[in-house]
Amino acid sequence: xxxxxxxxxxxxxxxxxxxxxxxxxxxxxxxxxxxxxxDEDQVxxxxxxxxxxxxxxxxxxxxxxxxxxxxxxxxxxxxxxxAKAGKLVRTLIDFTLGIDExxxxxxxxxxxxxxxxxxxSQKRVFLRQxxxxxxxxxxxxxxxxxxxxxLANTLIKELKKIDDKDVLVEVQIEESKGLxxxxxxxxxxxxxxxxxxxxxxxxxxxxxxxxxxLQSGVLHASEDRDFRTAYSYxxxxxENADMAEDKVLSVRGLKYMCLxxxxxxxxxxxxxxxxxxxxxxYRGTELQAMRELGLAFKSRILKAFLQAFEKYQKELKEDRVxxxxxxxxxxxxxxxxxxxLFEPYSVVELKYISDKIGLPQxxxxxxxxxxxxxxxxxxxxxxxxxVLYVYNTPGKEEGYKNAVDIIHSLxxxxxxxxxxxxxxxxxxxxIKAPPKAPEPKKKRRRQRRARxxxxxxxxxxxxxxxx
Length: 467
What we know:
It is built from 24 helices and three strands. 74% of the residues lie in helices and 3% in strands. Mean pLDDT is 81; it is low at 1-20. A hairpin with a 4-residue loop joins strand 2 (378-382) and strand 3 (387-391). The longest helix has 35 residues, at 398-432.
């Protein structure tokens, strides 16, 4: 698929000349000539020839020949070291998965599985795990989410044991995507949290960070309906994808930024987003589809909205994220169309509205009743006569609010006055209190005698005990 491609090594000028002369059959004949593993020049020539032919076949979208090319290179791969052979196989797989055609999907899956089995037979663990991660992504792209989950669960357990964080983050993000498409949002969020936890312990390249931010935004938009937070995640994803020079991810980030603005009932911002300095270099039908969708929302015409979905079916209806929000978008658009139709009137027939909007009268009645309950507009629905009375939106009553504010202020001032009066009363009582009269002399003498008598008795008791 288009979004699976990575930057493949550019063939050397010599290899580009070979590209015009060789095909797969001639390449097989070249492989039939034995060479030594330590002959670096011959190894380099054959490696460049493989890349050149693979690029040519990928540009021609010839998946069958690419499959035969990968099969024919396996004897040559055994001469290479594990790292170099793994890099060559991954590049060939990228060329194969870069062919974006529905007819090629079956062959792409077969090629991935064959390469995984070959890596398993050659005991190349790292290569096998990398290819399995790419197969999981391919399964998600073609809609085989159950197969993707089964493979991801096994691979994640294996990757955690060997602590391979790079591949682990990639697989956890794909697991979250698959669970989201299956409708299990809670598990999808758990998988994404696991990916973020793993990412915190490693350096993330811009492309992988963009994938992480994009999935975070998708989950915020779907689970929490928090489109403001989702927009900020989509913006971060777009910036990271732009720095990574990944066109597919950048366009997707811009697309979902426009979607968030539409869901926030702010279609005017779409032109600002798409005319920004960074966004100007990205063109295509996907962004044009979002622009027309925003114009339909702004005009509040349901027909224009449905026409945009029909015109850009691949870009809108086949996008799983937009498809999940399609029902909410449709309901919002119906509300906008209804408001546009009865805004000029104070009394309007329901039949007239249903004829104009092109929906059954029963559906229109139910929708208007819900809008009245949600206080989207003010009016009265008379089902017996089949008419709708539209009232002006009542203004805010500032008088009641001001009266309540005055009452609160008076209450505070009364409380403060009461506390001040209480303090003054306390001070007055202290001032007016009479001074203590001195004790009579006789009374003081009696107290001194009593104390001295008690002291003598205690001393006599102590002496008797000592004897």
